Automatic annotation (TrEMBL):
The UniProt record lists the keyword Transcription: no
Provenance organism: Theobroma cacao (Cacao)
Pfam families: LANC_like
Single GO BP term: peptide modification
Binding residues annotated for Zn(2+), in chain numbering: 281
Molecular function per GO: metal ion binding
Name under which the protein is recorded: LanC-like protein GCL2 isoform X2
Keywords: Metal-binding, Zinc
InterPro entries: 6hp_glycosidase-like_sf, LANC-like, LanC-like_prot_euk
Family recorded in the similarity comment: Belongs to the LanC-like protein family.
The keyword Zinc appears for this protein: yes
Length: 330
């Protein structure tokens, strides 16, 4: 496991030495300011410096060539970073470079059959459309939206986040969030949700105790990348029927009941006795983000109790000797 995590050498607590009273209106800045407001500007500067380094290494020094177009591991991830930087700092140079990189990824992904936000064509088209809107380029916005609507989902697609139906739905959520509800109509998303719910219920009937269960290459994963956490996170952004809400709620409760004493979670149904993986793909980091979302929705879970569960899960991430990537779920 030595290659699966970084030792956390930071102290458990550093007291705040000076108070800086500042109005924090931006949501991201509120996040960066926790627990001390004076930290927010330090985080912001560090993040913007890191953005420059990442952009140089993944775009400038590569000769602006795309070997992997995906958002998850490839060049589109740099474009997404630039878009987030633009949202934070309102630097139009970041937005222009984002669009240039998306254009290169568009060419590289044109024949791809992958359909998800993180690893497929949907991510390229969704980010391209949203960035084009911010740039005021209606022609480019229309182009990427039309390309997105040409994406076809095969019948043998898995249901998970990285390569499956949930990953396509996540791209739909991204578009509707930034371009307006109904950009991708509910008729489109509902058909995909129906398939996900149907598959989850069918597999759950074979036993295990969860109302919904899914497989990816024969493994019943729990985590964000391939399993329950990622799928539940996306389903909570969908318009669900009352019985579907109960199934999502029951699935989350099943996971909480069966977490490890450490606060971590199993990687899969088949791996319920090994408490070893603590990262976004498998384990507490990805599941914590799903529980945060559940705690925000009164229709899914009782807020107070679930917030405490989220708190304890996040404390696990802070206190164990791991620095975990939490992904980019917001």
């Amino acid at each position: 496991m030595a290659d699966r995590f970084f030792p956390n050498v930071l102290p458990d607590f550093v007291s705040e030495t000076t108070e800086q009273k500042e109005e924090v209106g931006d949501t991201l800045m509120k996040l960066l300011s926790m627990p001390y407001s004076s930290l927010s500007q330090h985080f912001k500067r560090a993040a913007l410096d890191l953005k420059e380094t990442v952009t140089l290494d993944t775009w400038g020094l590569t000769g602006q060539k795309v070997s992997d177009f995906t958002l998850y591991c490839g060049t589109l991830g740099t474009a997404f970073l630039l878009f987030k930087s633009y949202q934070l700092a309102n630097n139009t140079n970041d937005l222009s470079l984002c669009l240039a990189i998306v254009d290169a990824c568009n060419s590289a992904s044109f024949s791809s059959r992958d359909v998800t936000f993180l690893c497929g064509r949907a991510g390229v088209c969704a980010l391209g459309a949203v960035a084009a809107k911010h740039a005021g380029n209606q022609e480019l916005l229309d182009y990427y939206l039309s390309q997105f609507k040409e994406i076809k989902l095969s019948s043998n697609l898995p249901d998970e986040l990285l390569y499956g139906r949930a990953g396509f739905l996540w791209a739909c959520v991204f578009l509707n969030k930034h371009l307006g509800e109904g950009t991708i109509p509910s008729t489109t998303t509902r058909a995909v949700v129906d398939e996900v719910i149907k598959n989850g219920r069918q597999l759950a009937k074979k036993g295990g105790g969860s109302p919904l269960m899914f497989e990816f290459y024969g493994e019943k994963y729990w985590g964000a990348a391939h399993g329950l956490a990622g799928i539940m996170h996306v389903l909570m952004d969908m318009e669900l029927e009352p019985d579907e809400i109960m199934d999502v709620k029951g699935t989350l409760k099943y996971m909480i009941r069966n977490r490890f004493p450490s606060g971590n979670y199993p990687a899969s149904e088949q791996d319920r006795k090994r408490d070893v993986l603590v990262h976004w793909c498998h384990g507490a980091p990805g599941i914590a983000l799903t529980l945060v979302k559940a705690a925000e929705q009164a229709t899914i879970c009782g807020l107070r109790k679930k917030l405490e569960l989220v708190r304890s899960t996040l404390l696990l991430l802070l206190c164990q000797e791991f620095l975990c990537s939490l992904g980019f779920w917001r």
